[in-house]
Amino acid sequence: MFKKTIKDERIVGEQRQLNSEGFGLLYMGLLVDVFYRSVIARQNIAEFWDLALLFWGVTFYVAVRTMGRGIAYYGGKKNIVRKVLPSAVIATIAGTLTLKWMDPALTIGQMAYNGLIFLIGFSVVTGLMYWISDKKANRI
Amino acid sequence: MRMYRAGSGLTQEELASKVNVTRQTIGLIEAGKYNPSLNLCISICKTLGATLNEIFWMEEDQDV
To answer: Structural domain boundaries of chain A?
Structure first.
């Protein structure tokens, strides 16, 4: 006789939570490592391509799954600018300052140009992700 | 829930076995330290021969 297998929802839930916390720790560790190697240590991407690929691969996977499940909620079409713009502005400022720090020869004009391109690109991609997620959510 | 379980003559271990969870989960539910899913609530109610209202409904002055 086989022993009856217990599938306790509390244990399953706690296991999932632990796995999620473990993933979060690994992801943050990977982010710090990739940031350190590329920005602080200024290593060539060829020296840590495996870590970078893993980081971007996981990021892409989570983003695609989030959109696919329609759970990137932003509170309706009216809120999309309010949701996207603040993070786009913060990312642009951080990115531009990092670029300047890595390349002090960068002029204000070049920084503004790079920042503008990044701001537009980031906003479009993030907005598109929310839009796709919203489409999926409306089908549920 | 403890009252209904005792009334049915079941131990925590026996109830846990019938609804396919561990004894600890039953203990935590009885102590109000774990909120079971609706499926598990229904399963417990069926096993104890009571309704969801009887076992899980709380009056306003009761603790969670």
So the answer is: 1-69, 73-140
Question: What fold does the segment set B2-56 form as a domain?
Answer: 434 Repressor (Amino-terminal Domain) (1.10.260)
d(CA B7, CA B15): 12
Task: Return the pLDDT at A120.
Answer: 94
Per-domain residue ranges of chain B: 2-56
Asked if the Cβ–Cβ distance from B22 to A8 is below 8 Å, we say yes
Could you tell me if the ipTM is greater than 0.95?
no
- CA separation for the pair A52, A63 (Å, rounded): 16
Distance CA A51, CA A29 (A): 11
CB pairs under 8 A between A and B: 26
How far are the Cα atoms of A15, A25, B28 from residue B25, in angstroms, in the given order?
Answer: 14, 28, 5
Chain A residues whose beta carbon lies within 8 Å of the beta carbon of residue B28: 10
How many Å is the Cα radius of gyration of chain B? Answer: 11
d(Cα A120, Cα A97) in Å, to the nearest integer? 17
CA distances from B18 to A7, A62, A100, B15 (A): 12, 38, 65, 5
Please state the pTM of the whole predicted model.
Answer: 0.75
